[in-house]
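Internal tracking record. Fields below are filled automatically when a chain is submitted to the structure queue. Please do not edit lines marked as system-generated. If the sequence contains nonstandard residues, flag them in the REMARKS field before resubmitting.
Queue: standard
Priority: normal
Entity type: single polypeptide chain
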Amino acid sequence: QLASVALFALAVSCAGPPPRAVLTVLIVGLVANSVITILQAEHQAWIGLTILREFRFSPTTPGVSVILAGDWRYARPYGLLPHPNLLAGSLLIGVLAAATWVLSARRWRRFAGITAVGLGFWALLLTFSRAAWGGLVVGGLIALVSLRPFVQIRALRRSLIAALAVVVIIGGLFFAAYQPLLLARVGVGAEATEIRSVVDRVIYTELALQAIGESPVLGVGLGNFPQVADDYLAETSFDLRGDQVHNVLLAAWAELGVIGLVLLLTALISGVVVALRHLRQTDHLADRAARIGLLAGVGALFAVGWFDHYPWTILHFQIAWWGLLAAALQPPSSAATLNR
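SYSTEM-GENERATED OUTPUT FOLLOWS
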């Protein structure tokens, strides 16, 4: 699986679609997923998209991801994915992609970008994914520190201010409407589901460190950590089965050893360095914005990887993470470096 992702990333960096085309597809997906997410959150159940294999759920479905705050039982939306956190990761990438349209030279695209950012941000908040929220902060900061050429243009500066205002307003409305759930999610109170979530992650982190201690150089083998964790848990009194550790770097170290961890970090860091070099060589603002959006997505998924495992374990997000970096690695063409 990892080899397939590496080959895909290589193909994208050498002969893949241009960055702006990649972001356009992500924005279209964002709008569709956001509408589904908002409807599911409003109805607190699946919305009948059987033709798209929508997961059937409600707040009382056994095993469904819920948040409890007193008598309020909130079913987190799943979209068309098997878990709300995966939906949040998809929305996260889409919101950062849509933000690049806010800086477009075309007025209709700026308006569409602001609308998509607002819609996607609301949907992302409704997933209550803490890792994705943190990823959005990191991705947003990466984008903001790269915006100096854009804020010097009056129309783009106004568009950026409008987008930030929309985000602030939506954030305020969300806090007012969902404050009890939000407080429960961030650990204020003693809801059993939230405490269990934190405790489970701590246990798997300790198991990963145990696996690293036993095989620090070669690891336990790619994809083998859940089975190793299950073996460890069989010797304890914990009512748990083997699962992934919710940290990408720990997962890589536990499965591939220090050799694999070093190779992972080398590939990531060197890729970002080259992508930044190509960004500086790109003068056309639309292409520059697209590359900023791609790098923001890479940084956001890396931040998610500190608190969740899916950028490392789920094929779709492996492709997204390394595919975004690969698209940013494409050298700027002569046409792209001209101010049109």
